[in-house]
Amino acid sequence: MKKHKSLKVKTGKSEEFFEKVKKVMRDADKNKPIEGSYTLTFEDPKEMLHFLTDKKINLIKAIRKHPDTITNIAKAIKRNRAAVYRDINEMEKFGLVKTHEEVNPGHGRHKIVEMVSSALKLEANI
Predict the structure, then answer these.
(1) Which CATH number is 42's domain given?
(2) DSSP strand E in 22-103: where?
(3) How far apart are the first and last CA of the chain?
(4) Which residues contact 72 (CB under 8 A, 6 or more apart)?
């Protein structure tokens, strides 16, 4: 997976999404270059806030600073490994983080967690 420059997490209506898709498709029909973007949209600001808790924001900061294994990240931020594992799985489902396996010489393989983008932009309309 290519690392995106910026990931936008925002609130918005499904109509806005479909309008953006229509514009992109019209541009594609005209052979105009399509600007790549990555946006995670929540219809309700409360849903966005429920997803992006303080603990997840701290987790995002830790992963961005130093991609590592779930165990090492949990130790670094002083959280329970199982809780960090659940948060990372949820964030991976939404496309905020990605995991990949690396060889750990003499100890098999381990899974590394990293951000999909170098920046995270939050945008909420209430």
Answers:
(1) 1.10.10.10
(2) 39-42, 97-103
(3) 33
(4) none
Total domain count, the chain: 1
Domain of residue 49 covers: 4-123
Burial zone of 87 (CB within 10 Å; 0-12 exposed, 13-18 middle, 19+ buried): buried
- Give the distance from CA 92 to its chain's centroid: 7
Report the alpha-carbon distance of residue 43 to residue 58 in Å, rounded: 24
Strands 97-103 and 109-115, how do they pair?
Answer: antiparallel
Name the pTM for this structure: 0.77
One digit per residue, the tens of pLDDT, for the chain of length 126 reads: 455 567 888 888 888 888 888 988 898 899 988 877 778 888 888 998 888 899 999 999 999 999 999 999 999 999 999 999 999 999 999 889 999 998 877 778 889 999 998 888 888 777
What pairs with residue 72 in β-bridges? none
